[in-house]
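Hi everyone,

Forwarding the result from last night's run.
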Amino acid sequence: MYELITKEDIKIDKRKRIAKLTESLVKKCLEKAPSSFELYSRKGEKHVIGGDNLVISSGGGAIWILDLDTGEPRPTTKKDVEETSRLTDALEHFDLCSATGIPQDVKSTVVDVMAAEAMMINTSKPYLMAPADGEQARYIIEMAAAISGGMERLANKPLLLGVASPNSPLRLASHDLDVVSEFANNKLPITILNCTISGATSPVTVAGTLVQTFAEILSMAAVVQLINPGNPLLLGFCPACIDMKTAYATFGCPENALVSAAGTQMLRYYKLPSWCCASEVDAILPDAQAGYETVWNTLLSLITGMNVISGTGHLGAAGGSFEKLVIDNEILGGIKRILKGVEVTSETLAVDIIDAVGPGGHYLAHKHSREHLKNERWFPKISYKSNVEEWKKNKVDLWGMAKKEVFEILRTHQPEPLPRDIEEKIKSIAKKAERSILSTS
């Protein structure tokens, strides 16, 4: 598609080091992007990204995590990535798996490769990775190709979704463009994820942040299509607000929910798949604050038609939690029930049943209740649903229930194993990356 670019399509100011793409070039590029694409698990399960479909991923990128035994924050390890991947593999409302943490016990220059190795071996769900640079992206793609049986098979039925981000404000950094290049040249789907901080790296107003956000993600989306016209593409948001009291980036603000929801509506206008980090919160513990920040960010995004959400299991600006993954799974189950809406038929209106039961009757043992219970009701796993007398006996709290569920899953659940030779190949690729990258860093 490069031959379609004219001198008028790109305007470069060498003195200011600014390049501008014309509206017509961006439109031509976006027309090449598919309105939906498919991801596959290594079991062959298909997930359609786009349209009216919802796909849920675990969150990634935590540099600290709540210790399961002490409840205190500590640096994330490679073992944590292994165990959170296994946990995600078992949780029914998660479709994709991201490397929850950035392991702090491995060299920073190979951290994404090591996280990918830990994740790929411990889940059969599709993989989500945000490599820091093109070199790590290359090794991660090689790992995924080993699982798929070659690069061509990986491109035909991708089980890996990449992520790259513009550098706000208004910069496309070379290392992120290298990541884009690796995925697009291999015909693999990639997410362009914008991470503005309103009041710091984008305007303090929601509308202004949206203007800058779309300038950034559409320009990088154009680059993807210029490299490989028709490449699967996902555009999204991980917005934050600067706290004017502390100067910290905050992720649980309702304004962030508005950015993601409005952005979703704009992407539906462009007929492009959408993404957001919906379950990001500012709370350090999985407490009531974590709950309400998760709900207002997630529910608003999903009501407006978001296709992919992530950020689940996250705490604080850069933390994670085993327990919050389980709690978020519970929250998402309830939200899915809300999104399902109200089925209105003669059977569900139940006028004849109401007439038959009559004044003073009850529906508990009625055939109608038995027939519709599973379809109408959502059944939580860890939420408390009894009375105060029962509660006094057990002193149940949500954090404790989630912790109990985590231990049970880690004790009993094993993901479908990779063939032994493929697992060894992934490990050898990781070792090769470690030797190569560390020798030049």
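The longest strand covers residues 36-40.

Cheers,
N.
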